[in-house]
């Protein structure tokens, strides 16, 4: 195994929607998803895409008002008699007011629709910008700036969900010493197929942040357990995963088979927790086989452990 | 990659539109402001109109009307104001034109402006009261009438001063005042009639003085020309000219009558001609023209009288003078015809004007000539002939003759040749014999004299039209009295008629011998002969006189008469008019040797 380094990741911005992470340079017509605040090309400040889209929408509205105004003014200019002039003025004001009211009423909807359309229109450009980011990451890797590369790919990965990205993330993460206080990810790294590096990463993550093990991870381990077993200490890894699944009774019920199978590899403290959970839930149905397996394990290995006395 | 992001595109679209809107806004603001201004002005115009203040109403309305930003409905009052506007414009431009014309002293343009002003005024008055009142007010504001008044009074004063100055200085070259005074409108004289009278009096005074002064210094032609010139000026101005014509007539009558009284024909013709040239300005029954016609008639009668009494030169002189007035060609032709008939030697003068010829003979109806004259120039030995042929065309012949010029005697044979084509015989001193004889016949068509014979002999005699007896001719028949016949080719020896006996003593007296011979011939032949004819060397017993065509030796000699062989018709300065061959001729018995 390679030598891992200890790092401190920069804090990731939390957003309600992924698009909120997109920033754009209005001059260069490029997009940016990283933490830079100013365009590297022109030095202009990046603007959130939502704001830019809103601005565009606002301009559309202004354009429409101007067009309308132009028509009204032309009508007035073309007026030949005083009557025509008065009609032109009055009609113009009326149309303007109507338009204004309508805009007030439906402007918000328009903004959303326009945003959607904007995004659709700009997809290609965004993709290109992301591609540029990837190239940058490649360059970072070459320069051995793995931390930067990871931080960047973590952001890019918010938009791209391909295995390639995931595997590259795992690759970068495997360079670091993982700690409890780190902002780590697991579920988002799940590749669609079996991956050795991911399993290795999983091993490290489970050690420091077992709470990241969710149903999808459990499913993945369950699906590829035969391959995981081929790893060094594969049984212990699966046992740890199973132990991590004990955080929620729902997982316990769902992944009984896995737990039963690798009960021997459960750490003592995990076994104790499982025994207590079973004692709390033994009046519910479906836990019998697990209870039996736990009882057997306790009897065989912890019969003299005072902590287990009276639990089951 | 799209060229523009939606952000940029929306920015530009909006800003371009913004600029357009701003432009439109400025335009609209201008239009609204102007429309408002127009409305206000129209309101003012209407208020003024209702208050009967047309001048202010029209001013406001014309300002409003100049604003094109908006159109307003035509209403009766606004239509009237519109019409008033054109009235004002017309008056303003008229006032401007008039002022310019006055400043540059252009009388015609000023008059045009004046007339235009009055036609506009009449038009306005015809239209309606309001327009007329408005017209008057504007005209007053522009002081149009005042300006015209000042200008014309000034012009009138200047013109009258000019008249007076002309009269005082007796210089009549500059007559521009006629035009000036005529173009000053009637009203400044106090009416058409007054203008007429005043100007007529003024002009009459002027012209009368002018006539008097000119008549003293200038010729008739100058005076008449000057008056005619003035007439033209007056007529151009449309001013009546009867007074001027009568002035002219009176003057001309006096002047022409004077020439008639003084019988100064040349001056009469001059003046008549000058006066007749002014016929276009004269009345159709001009006394003077009638006088001229009468005088010309009298002169013609006089000339005709001269012709009838064969005083052709006088008649010719008259005709030539009168030819400047009347066509006298027919009369001259007639004169010439009669003169030639009377004195054919004129033909010679006419045909050979640079020769002074002795007229040998004249006659009629010979050789195809109506009338002819034959002359001889002894100095160059040329025989000249001038004639009128059957068609009346002039023909001239000239031919040099080689003979002893001094002694040449020409005569027309009444024996030889025919009645219509007699032969001219020439007798001169010969070289080998006493005489040289020449026979000539003029041929008008070939314009030459045809020589029938040319021989030398001691004498000769024509016995028949084609038979001649020749004494001792050179050549054939020498020492004979030979008989020759006249053939086409010339004289042909026929036979010996008698022996010719030469008397050496009598060599120098051919005449005597001739007489003897002819007596012999007469005796032998028993022929009746005129003693003068055929014996040119005969010395006449009586004196002969040349008969002239007129009383003077400048006239052509038309023949000869013997002493006391004529009848006297009249006497003049030592000349006798005689009856000669059925016509009249003149002789001077006292001078004749
Ligand atoms: Zn930029």
TrEMBL record, chain A:
**Name of the protein this chain belongs to:** Uncharacterized protein
Protein's organism: Brevibacillus panacihumi W25
Bilayer-crossing residues are 60-77, 83-102
Q: Which UniProt keywords apply?
A: Membrane, Transmembrane, Transmembrane helix
From TrEMBL, chain B:
Q: Residue spans with biased composition (Acidic residues)?
A: 505-518
Q: Which UniProt keywords apply?
A: Membrane, Transmembrane, Transmembrane helix
Record flagged with keyword Nucleotide-binding: no
The annotated regions of Basic and acidic residues compositional bias extend over 526-536
What residue intervals traverse the membrane? 12-30
Gene3D superfamilies for the chain: SH3 Domains
Annotated region (Disordered), positions in chain: 505-539
Give the protein's recorded name.
Answer: SH3b domain-containing protein
Q: What is the source species?
A: Brevibacillus panacihumi W25
């Amino acid at each position: 195994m390679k030598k891992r380094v200890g790092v401190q990741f920069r804090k990731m911005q939390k957003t309600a929607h992924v698009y909120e992470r997109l920033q754009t340079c209005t001059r260069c017509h490029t997009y940016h998803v990283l933490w830079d605040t100013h365009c590297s090309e022109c030095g202009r400040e990046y603007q959130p895409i939502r704001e830019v889209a809103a601005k565009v929408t606002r301009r559309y509205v202004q354009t429409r008002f101007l067009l309308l105004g132009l028509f009204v003014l032309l009508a007035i200019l073309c007026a030949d008699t005083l009557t025509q002039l008065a009609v032109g003025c009055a009609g113009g004001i009326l149309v303007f007011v109507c338009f204004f009211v309508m805009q007030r009423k439906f402007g918000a909807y328009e903004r959303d629709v326009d945003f959607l359309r904007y995004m659709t229109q700009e997809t290609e450009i965004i993709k290109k910008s992301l591609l540029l980011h990837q190239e940058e990451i490649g360059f970072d890797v070459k320069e051995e700036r793995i931390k930067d590369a990871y931080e960047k790919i973590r952001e890019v990965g918010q938009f791209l969900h391909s295995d390639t990205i995931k595997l590259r993330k795992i690759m970068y993460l495997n360079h670091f010493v993982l700690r409890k206080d780190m902002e780590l990810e697991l579920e988002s790294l799940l590749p669609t197929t079996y991956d050795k590096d991911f399993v290795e990463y999983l091993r490290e993550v489970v050690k420091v942040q077992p709470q990241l093990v969710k149903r999808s991870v459990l499913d993945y381990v369950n699906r590829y357990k035969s391959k995981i077993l081929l790893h060094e200490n594969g049984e212990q890894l699966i046992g740890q995963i199973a132990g991590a699944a004990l955080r929620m009774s729902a997982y316990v019920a769902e992944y009984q088979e896995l737990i039963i199978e690798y009960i021997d590899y459960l750490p003592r403290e995990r076994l104790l927790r499982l025994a207590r959970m079973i004692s709390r839930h033994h009046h519910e149905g479906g836990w019998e086989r697990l209870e039996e397996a736990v009882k057997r394990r306790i009897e065989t290995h912890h019969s003299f452990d005072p902590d287990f006395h009276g639990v089951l | 990659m799209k060229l523009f992001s939606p952000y940029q595109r929306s920015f530009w679209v909006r800003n371009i539109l913004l600029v357009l809107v701003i432009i439109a806004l400025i335009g609209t603001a201008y239009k609204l402001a102007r429309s408002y201004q127009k409305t206000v002005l129209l309101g003012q115009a209407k208020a003024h109109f209702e208050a009967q203040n047309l001048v202010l109403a029209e001013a406001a309305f014309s300002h409003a009307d100049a604003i094109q930003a908006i159109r307003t409905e035509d209403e009766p009052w606004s239509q009237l104001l519109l019409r008033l506007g054109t009235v004002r414009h017309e008056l303003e431009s008229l006032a401007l034109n008039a002022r310019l014309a006055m400043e540059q002293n252009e009388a015609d343009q000023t008059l045009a402006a004046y007339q235009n002003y009055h036609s506009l005024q009449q038009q306005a008055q015809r239209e309606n009261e309001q327009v007329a009142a408005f017209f008057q007010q504007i005209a007053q504001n522009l002081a149009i009438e005042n300006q015209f008044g000042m200008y014309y009074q000034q012009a009138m004063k200047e013109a009258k001063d000019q008249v007076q100055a002309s009269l005082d200085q007796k210089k009549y070259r500059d007559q521009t005042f006629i035009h000036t005074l005529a173009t000053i409108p009637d009203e400044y004289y106090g009416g058409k009639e007054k203008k007429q009278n005043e100007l007529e009096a003024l002009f009459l005074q002027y012209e009368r003085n002018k006539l008097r002064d000119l008549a003293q210094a200038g010729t008739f032609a100058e005076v008449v020309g000057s008056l005619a010139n003035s007439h033209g000026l007056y007529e151009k101005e449309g001013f009546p000219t009867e007074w001027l014509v009568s002035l002219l007539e009176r003057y001309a009558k006096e002047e022409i009558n004077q020439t008639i009284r003084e019988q100064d024909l040349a001056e009469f013709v001059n003046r008549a001609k000058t006066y007749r040239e002014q016929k276009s300005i004269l009345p159709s029954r001009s006394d003077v023209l009638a006088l001229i016609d009468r005088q010309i008639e009298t002169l013609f009668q006089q000339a005709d009288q001269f012709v009838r009494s064969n005083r052709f030169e006088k008649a010719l002189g008259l005709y030539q003078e009168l030819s400047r007035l009347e066509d006298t060609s027919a009369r001259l032709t007639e004169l010439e015809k009669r003169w030639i008939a009377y004195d054919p030697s004129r033909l010679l003068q006419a045909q050979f004007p640079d020769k002074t010829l002795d007229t040998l003979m004249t006659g009629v109806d010979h050789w195809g000539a109506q009338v002819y004259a034959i002359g001889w120039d002894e100095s160059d030995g040329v025989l000249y002939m001038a004639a009128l042929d059957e068609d009346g065309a002039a023909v001239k012949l000239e031919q040099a003759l080689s003979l002893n010029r001094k002694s040449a005697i020409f005569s027309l044979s009444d024996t030889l040749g025919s009645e219509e084509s007699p032969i001219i015989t020439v007798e001169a001193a010969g070289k080998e014999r006493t005489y040289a004889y020449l026979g000539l016949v003029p041929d008008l068509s070939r314009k030459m004299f045809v020589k029938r014979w040319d021989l030398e002999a001691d004498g000769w005699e024509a016995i028949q039209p084609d038979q001649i007896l020749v004494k001792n001719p050179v050549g054939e028949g020498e020492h004979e009295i030979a008989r020759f016949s006249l053939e086409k080719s010339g004289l042909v020896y026929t036979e010996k008629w008698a022996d010719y006996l030469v008397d050496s003593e009598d060599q120098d007296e051919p005449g005597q011998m001739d007489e003897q011979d002819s007596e012999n011939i007469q005796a032998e032949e028993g022929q009746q002969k005129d003693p003068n004819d055929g014996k040119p060397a005969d010395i006449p017993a009586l004196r002969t006189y040349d008969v002239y065509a007129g009383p003077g030796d400048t006239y052509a000699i038309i023949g000869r008469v013997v002493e006391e062989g004529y009848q006297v018709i009249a006497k003049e300065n030592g000349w006798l008019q005689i009856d000669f061959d059925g016509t009249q001729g003149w002789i001077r018995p006292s001078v004749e040797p």
